[in-house]
Each structure stands twice: as C-alpha cells, then as structure tokens.
Amino acid sequence: MTRVFNFSAGPAVLPQEVLQQAAEEMLDWHGSGMSVMEMSHRGKEFISIYEAAERDLRDLLGVPGNYRILFLQGGGIGENAIVPLNLVGRKSQPAVVDFVNTGSWSSKSIKEAKKYCQVNVAASSEAQKFTAIPPRESWKLSRNAAYVHICTNETIDGVEFQYTPDIAADTDGAPLVADMSSHILSREIDVSKYGVIFGGAQKNIGPAGLTLVIVRDDLIGQALPICPSAFDWKLVADNNSMYNTPPTYAIYIAGLVFQWLKRQGGVKAMEQRNIAKAALLYDYLDSTGFYSNNIAKESRSRMNVPFFLKDETLNEAFLAGAKERNLLQLKGHKSVGGMRASIYNAMPVEGVQALVDYLKEFEKKHG
Ligand SMILES: *Cc1c(COP(=O)(O)O)cnc(C)c1O
C-alpha cells in the first residue's frame, strides 16, 4: 500500500491513525457487532459517540456554555441560505446584512443571501483580485445590520484573517458570522467574539456530509416561517441535532479526528505546527523568482497556498513530476489558475518538506 501526500482543498487528507481505527472498527464497533453506519441514531451506542464528539469539540475550541454546537447537513453552501433564514427575522423586513467580500466563498455567500435580505458589501478586495483582507478601518458597516458575515479563510484565493475583527463600535450589537469551513481547528479562536461559526467538515475535520454550526443561545429561535424545519436552529438544538437523522458516520469520523487532535496537544499545538508548515512553504516560494505567491503577507492563508510558476508553459510538466513523487492534487482552482497546496491539520510536516524538495528539484532542472 502506498499513501500519497494529498494536497487537495477538500475533501482532503485525514490522519492515517483515524482511518486505521475506523477500519479496525468497521465491522464491529466496540463489541456491538455492528458498524457505526448501521446503528440507530437514537440508540445508546451512537448517542455515546455523538456526545463524546460534541464534548471534545467544545473542549478543543473552548466553546462557552451559552453556545450550542449543531451537527447538520447541507455544507457551507447550505449555510449560505440557512444563516439568513435563521437570523434576518431578528430585524424588521427587509433586513440588511453586511458582508466583507474577500474572495470566491464570500462572493457565493453574498449571492445566496440576496434571496433573503438586503446585502450591503461593507468592504471588498475584488479590485485587488482578492489578494488581501480589506483593513478593518475601511469597512462601511450598517448600524442596523442583522449580522455581519465574513469568511475567515478563503480556500480558493488563499487569504486568511489573522485576527478577529471587532465590530461592536459600528453596529447595534450585530453578531459576527464566520464561515470557517477551511480553517476551523487550525488555530486558536475566541468563540465568544462570534455569534455564529459554521463550517463544512470535509476540509479540516472529516468526511463530506457533516456541517458544524456553533451558535450563541440568543440567536436561536427567530427563524423565518419559510425556513425548512430541518434547518431551523431551534428545532435542531431542541432535538440535540436529531430532529432528522444526522450524518452519523461522518460524526463518528469527526469524533475520531477530535480525539486525534487532543492527542496531538490540541488546537494550540496544531497551530504551532501549522505556522511552521506554512512558513516552510512560503519562505521557499519567496526565496526564488521561479515561483510566486502574490498574496499580501499579512493576509496569507496557513491552510491554502496558491502559487504560480513564472513560466506557465511548465505547469503540466510540474504536475506530472509531482504525481511521480506521490504529491497529488496540486493543480490550482480554475478561477485562480496556477497551483495550490492545501496543508490542513492532517498534512504532516514531512508532506510539506517533500513538496519543497520537489519545488527545488524542479527549479534546478528547468530554471
Ligand atoms: C468548501 C467551502 C464551502 C462549501 O462547502 P460545501 O460543503 O461544498 O457546501 C464553503 N465555504 C468555504 C470557505 C469552503 O472552503
């Protein structure tokens, strides 16, 4: 068996230990004689899996007691509708929602929200081709916004918030909503600074099909009447994420990933490793004219690193050589072009080192 270094943006690499444990437990979970996939979501076995996953996630992120953790389906794209359906009802209609447009994913969120509210783009880096997070001082927030939406890590463009924006002075208590799909659990955050945090699992947590929502108590219970019941946070919260059948196997794998993260020393230790991994790659890209990354240094993502070869006619040869070395999924997103290396929590430093070694080797041959 050969395991490759998988630089996919998502679904993405998972810790090998987790996959091994899941394989060992596949046919018979803890003497139950069943696979987790075959269990009732209301049985005591699955409830124990669910409760452990919830508890471990709460520990890892330091989620305060006045926040609920919901395990949903629908992905990050689903939340682009589910969030307004749950939050715009707090204001008289049509409500205004503020967005900061930092790349492809916030642009998608804006487009979807327009079905449910008036959108105010408080700041945008579109004119700079999304190569930097617009400075907080430049945001034109609406005092009466129902909420303020940001995407804290733009998976496609490769920009990341390196701080939590403070919006209290410019709004009448609008909650900050963050799409953290592609960097949740990669760095320490202060959950209490946010009203809602959401993320699809397939980037940095586990299998596709699971979506996490962390929401402050007082923001639950004001869904618009047209909100689908399965996505009404109050119904979901009151039923401990079992209003409808949750994605049970994905929750189980996410739970194993949470246990793995704890064994690694938790989010703080992971963040130190992610800083080191990102530095290894960016430092090399910056040291040569053969490759480039054009993101403003203070906005560079630690998770998704887009880069270009100076001579783009070499792109195919670059990818073919990478594949020979078991370095996979390095082709950039079609909207940006070039290359992209996604180096999530589960990408070991050895993988990043192997990529840097290959970058050097390829440059030597073609530079
Ligand atoms: C991948 C991603 C999404 C979309 O997730 P889906 O599960 O495909 O709906 C949304 N936001 C961000 C930041 C992402 O990286």
Automatic annotation (TrEMBL):
Gene3D superfamilies: Aspartate Aminotransferase, domain 1, Type I PLP-dependent aspartate aminotransferase-like (Major domain). Its EC number is 2.6.1.52. Its cofactor is pyridoxal 5'-phosphate. Pathway: Cofactor biosynthesis; pyridoxine 5'-phosphate biosynthesis; pyridoxine 5'-phosphate from D-erythrose 4-phosphate: step 3/5; Amino-acid biosynthesis; L-serine biosynthesis; L-serine from 3-phospho-D-glycerate: step 2/3. Residues 4-355 form the Aminotransferase class V domain. Pyridoxal 5'-phosphate binds at W105, T155, D179, Q202, N244, T245. Pfam families: Aminotran_5 (PF00266). The modification N6-(pyridoxal phosphate)lysine is found at K203. One of its GO terms (molecular function) is O-phospho-L-serine:2-oxoglutarate aminotransferase activity. Keywords: Amino-acid biosynthesis, Aminotransferase, Cytoplasm, Pyridoxal phosphate, Pyridoxine biosynthesis, Serine biosynthesis, Transferase. SUPFAM superfamilies: PLP-dependent transferases (SSF53383). Belongs to the class-V pyridoxal-phosphate-dependent aminotransferase family. SerC subfamily. Homodimer. HAMAP family: SerC_aminotrans_5 (MF_00160). This is Phosphoserine aminotransferase. It comes from Noviherbaspirillum album.
